Amino acid sequence: MRPRAILGGLVLVAWVAKTAPLLACPICFQVEQGPVTDGVRAAVVVLVAVTMGVLAGFGAFIRGFVQRAHRLDAGGGHAANGESRP
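Now predict its structure.
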């Protein structure tokens, strides 16, 4: 991965982390602490983690297709006759 992409990703994560309290509704700031509140917060974290995992899987899947296409283009186009080599 390129250093510029890594730096851009880190800046994006820092920006989102910094502005996260600005995106919360006023009700969330006035909620009383309790087991239900902790459960809802844990549920949100789990949902975000699952979503990010699925998106990362799709990204890896698409990246594999792109790399395979580049290999086929560089290797003389073996896909033209129906062959597919890993």
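The chain has a mean pLDDT of 79.
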